[in-house]
Amino acid sequence: MKSVSIFVAALAFGAGTLAMSREAHALGPIGVEVGAKVGVATNPLSDQNGVSPSTPLGFGVGARGGVDILGFYGGVNFMYYLGSSEDVTVAGQTASFSVHTVMYGLELGYGITLLDLLTIRPQIGFGNATFSASSSVPGLVPGDFPSKSYLYLEPGVTGLVGLGLWYVGADANVLFFPGLDNSKASLSIHGQIGIKF
Questions:
Q1: What confidence tens digit (pLDDT) does each residue in 163-182 have?
Q2: HEC string of 148-175?
Q3: Residue 16: what are its φ and ψ, rounded to 5°?
Q4: Collapsing DSSP states into helix, strand and coil, what is residue 16?
Q5: Number of neighbours of residue 79 by Cβ within 10 angstroms
């Protein structure tokens, strides 16, 4: 009787183990991620004479894609930050002044996966950030605003939750623009959704 109950318990355990679904990777230890991002970033420009300058970042939308090989991640990133706009008066004329930023670059990191569900990935992003300024009156853009490209560095951490083929996640980063005068560290936070196969 005792050996029958041990046999039944072993049979139930074996059936339960076989019934549990495991994630199948068509590419073996290689995973491909493609997704959309939306988020915000704080102003990277320092206050001057107690006046806070217009932010070239703010709310942003973008996309990313990359390859994960045995936990090592390499990918590309694109973000468009809407920036801000305001009315300015120069030489007695009032005009609408707006700034925005386009960023694109590479990301490198290493992910730690817990329970085949949650991936925590410390990473660093780097690439080009182009700050652009425009005005409703030609030639009325303030001359001290940088309308050009700079290197950006963005160390941070990303968390992804796998939902079958889909994933959702978030990232938090510190954003630096080493060549930008009067700059300070900026914080960027994004939500993500995409597919992983």
A1: 999 999 999 999 999 988 88
A2: CEEEEEEEEEEEEEEECCEEEEEEEEEE
A3: -65, -40
A4: helix
A5: 26
